[in-house]
Amino acid sequence: MVPAAAYHLLAQASNEIGPLPPNTVLIGLLALGLFALAVAAEKGVSIWSKLRKSPPDHETYATKGEVAELEKRMERRIGESLGEIKTRIGHLEATMARFTQDFALAIGRLEGRTETLPAAPAKAAARGGH
Q: Is 124 inside a domain boundary?
């Protein structure tokens, strides 16, 4: 219940302001209607999402065992990829060592000094490089 003092304040305010133009009242009612429509739409969507059938949790979320299995598979794949990368790096180092020797030999031929050739890097030779 609204106390009598509130009615008195509203009456006094309306006397001081005067009557509102019809356009202002219509704009206020339109804004109120749009707000009520938005609230009703939000409540309707909320009810619809609660009533909609959702998949069971075991189909949506992974169990600890499934996560552990996934981690093992990923670690295995990463390990395989890492081994392949190390092998390729070894081949690249061996190729670079051969290129360095060939380049030094070519420079030596241009300068007329072919009697000494640089040794292949020890790292490439230790990995089984050519």
A: yes
What is the number of domains present in the chain? 1
**Residue at 85 is within a domain:** yes
Per-residue confidence (pLDDT) for residue 59, from 0 to 100: 79
- For residue 63, pLDDT beyond 70: yes
Give the model's pLDDT for residue 130: 47
DSSP string, the chain: ---HHHHHHHHHHHHHH-PPPHHHHHHHHHHHHHHHHHHHHHHHHHHHHHHS----HHHHS--HHHHHHHHHHHHHHHHHHHHHHHHHHHHHHHHHHHHHHHHHHHHHHHHT--S--PPPPHHHHHTT--
pLDDT at 121: 52
Instruction: Please give the structure tokens belonging to residue 130.
Output: 């050519």
Whether 55 maps to a domain, the answer reads: no
Q: Looking at the whole model, is its pTM more than 0.90?
A: no
